[in-house]
Amino acid sequence: MLIVGDxxxxxxxxxxxxxxxxxxxxxxxxxxxGKTIIHMEPADNSKETIIYYGENxxxxxxxxEQLNDRGINIPPKSCILASSNETVKIPNGxxxxxxxxxxxxxxxxxxxxxxxxxxxxxxxxxxxxICNHSNFYVNLKPKQLVGQLFLFKTSTKQIELYxxxxxxxxxxxxxxxx
Length: 178
Description:
Low-confidence stretches: none
CATH superfamily: Deoxyuridine triphosphatase (dUTPase)
Organism: Peribacillus castrilensis
Keywords: Hydrolase, Nucleotide metabolism
Distance between the termini: 32 Å
CATH topology: Deoxyuridine 5'-Triphosphate Nucleotidohydrolase, Chain A
Radius of gyration: 17 Å
CATH class: Mainly Beta
GO molecular function, one term: dCTP deaminase activity
Protein name: dCTP deaminase
Structural class: mainly beta
Mean pLDDT: 93
GO biological process, one term: dUTP biosynthetic process
Strand order of the largest sheet: 1-2-14-8-10
Number of helices: 2
Shape: globular
């Protein structure tokens, strides 16, 4: 069951789900863009570089950038890692699903590469895998509302709460091998 309206507003307050209660949006919780961006590119700019899933990625493939008020121009057909400006806490008995704000999606920009689930017990910033699928540069500014988090009631509270490798994230998190 999707939690909406006054039930969502009450749940947000009762469980301190987000550190900014003004992000309530009737059917979801609006999420803003954080100030830290991670670019991932080969260290030698070679197009032949292979990354192996499940293995560590060399640190020199990552470049971290702090955004100023002008934000970031995301080039066409490119991707970055970013995060929610807000810290999110998903209570036991609920499950979060991240979606791109509709107005941003209509620019052919997505916040997730299908990794939009937020498990019960998760606490931290939510990492966005932002992909610009368009043929245009798209500018995003810090704190600009880019995502929406939908909360669903789970069928039971009898599950192990999330305590995985991305717990307590501050800013975007890089790939972590299994």
